[in-house]
Amino acid sequence: VTVATDGGPQTKLAYPRPSRMVRVGRIAIVGLARLTLGFDGAAPGAVAIVDLDARSARLFELPAGVANCGRVVPVPGRPNRVAVACGGFSMPFDDEPVVRETSGLFMLDVQGSTVSVALAWRPNADAGRPVAVAEAVALDERTMVAVDYGAGVAPDGCHLVDLVNGQTERLFDSAGSFQIGSGALGPGVLLVPDVSVGIRRFRRGGFGFDEIDPVFIDGGGVGLPPRHVYSIE
Predict the structure, then answer these.
(1) Radius of gyration of the chain from Cα atoms?
(2) Residue 192: is it exposed, middle or buried by C-beta count within 10 angstroms (0-12/13-18/19+)?
(3) In what order do the strands lie in the sheet with 71-74?
């Protein structure tokens, strides 16, 4: 990839940097960040399609313009769907207009070894949309929950995103920036870690969710609040 440096544009190697994977039958979909060694450049957004029987892999490129697509998550009740979140990339870090332009949420349809984009949601499609692409969790075949990280002292926002009609709904704001972690959908409840609160809990009602009492976790005396919640079936 071509990156900007003090000495002008330079061509550098982008490494796959695999992050998470979802298995669909005998295929594994692997999220790839595709960043340079110094984190100063990103290749176009893509995931790896791994054939577990043939022990082979190929790239599946996502719609043009997106980058940093390391987060892939399963879709409840739809074993042939995989959700992908592209966090975007900017240099310098957290340049909001550039991140907005290079980020997005996608639903992939996996039929055997054939993969296609079933749904796409891009923050740059509407200036009023939150850049809600971090810590994404799929709730069903069309809805995801994701975080719009605050910049500086701005709070994070946790949002519901409907990939079909583009509708978003704010679930809550954190007390500060970079405080909401990676959540999970459990039986009848959405769990989202928030540094200042603990584990926030939500019950679904229509498109939205109703918040119920959170669960506080003290970190075992080491002073580290929860950052990730996983659902193990």
Answers:
(1) 18
(2) buried
(3) 71-74, 81-86, 104-111, 114-121
* pLDDT tens, position by position, 35-76: 999 898 899 999 999 999 999 999 999 999 999 999 999 999
Token pair recorded at residue 2: 């071509």
- CA dist 18 and 182 (Å) reads 17
Tokens 């332009």 sit at which residue? 101
CA distance 116 to 106: 10
6: which residues sit within 8 A by CB, 6+ positions away?
none
pLDDT in tens, 165-176: 999 999 999 998
Give the Cα separation of 79 and 84 in Å (integer): 14
Q: How far apart are CA 170 and CA 209, in angstroms?
A: 10
Q: Which of 203, 153, 212 minimizes the C-alpha distance to 179? A: 153
Angle 38-42-47 from CA coordinates, rounded to 5°: 120
**Entry pTM:** 0.91
In whole angstroms, give the CA distance from residue 120 to residue 104: 7
Token pair recorded at residue 171 = 């679930």
Under a CB-based contact definition with an 8 Å cutoff, are residues 27 and 52 in contact? Answer: yes
Structure tokens at 198: 């603990």
Query: Encoding tokens for residue 144?
Result: 């995801």
Asked whether the beta carbons of 62 and 45 are under 8 A apart, the reply is yes
Residues of the chain with pLDDT under 70: 4-8, 152, 206-207, 218-223, 233
